[in-house]
Amino acid sequence: MDDWMARNGHKVVPRDRLRALSVRSDLRGWAQTLSHVGAICGTTAAIILVPANMPALLIPVLMVHGILINCLYAGQHELSHWTAFKTKALNDWVGQVFGFATLNPFYTDRWAHFAHHRATHDPLLDSELIGMKPYTSWSYFLDLIAVGFWRRRIRMIVRTAFAQGLEGDYWLTDEQRNAVILEARIYVALWVAIAVASIAFRSWIAVEFWIGPLLLTKWFHQLQNTGEHTGLDHDSDTFRNTRTLKGPAVMRWLVWNMSYHTAHHCFPGVPFHRLAELHGDIVANLGRPVPTLGYIEAQREIFATLRRRAREAAQAA
């Protein structure tokens, strides 16, 4: 597997313990997948059943529906590591479905994500940082509410479909480069087909049940995405450059335990359902705390860090 483990990781979690924690389970994978997809089916039914004379009820239902769809990316991320299911092919098949549902091409994301793991917080090599200007408070806010995120995402898929914008993707082999271009072209072709069918049948189903809720509630999933690394120093030590996020049990379920992000980044071969145990081992054995904050606390710290860095840059100018 093209994964990476924290430097000196075996000094924190012994090999035998790590081997035990790394056992995959089709049963646990199906339980998480079906509960998440089942919840989306439930909110879909709720949207249909809301009485026409009570449109205000649609707002909270659509919000929950969109949040559930967006958080499928947490599952896609786990599937990218081949750790959601023991059966490797299941990870790929389900991952492709989740990828299309979240407008996030599966193989494109997998290969970029491995580069992110190998070079976390390296501005020159981390796939999540390459080409990104340092955040200001305003640009970060636009990303947090997903305006910047969706602009980059849609532009990336369309440009890739035209075989453009891949020059800096050093992590791709020639074969993988051809695969991501084909993947983007399939996405664009399916978008066009859905749009044409919607117009032909004069239907808003795709917008009401998928695209609208997905685009408008991405901000919720951004609390997880942006909270994982933003604002931390460019330190090569994975126990320092990745943030664990505290939240209620429902949040841990929604994000497939990616709230234990330090544990995941240090030992990415451990499946989602064992990350709580792994986190406990790290805390007990590391000898120092790992970056840990609640979701809202993390955002406060990020904005405070950005303001501090802006002041320091202004004073140095």
TrEMBL record:
Residues 56-287 form the Fatty acid desaturase domain. The keyword S-adenosyl-L-methionine does not apply. It comes from the Bacteria. The keyword Transferase does not apply. GO terms for molecular function: sphingolipid delta-4 desaturase activity. The chain crosses the membrane at residues 57-75, 132-150, 186-205. Keywords: Membrane, Oxidoreductase, Transmembrane, Transmembrane helix. One of its GO terms (biological process) is ceramide biosynthetic process. This is Fatty acid desaturase. It comes from Phenylobacterium montanum.
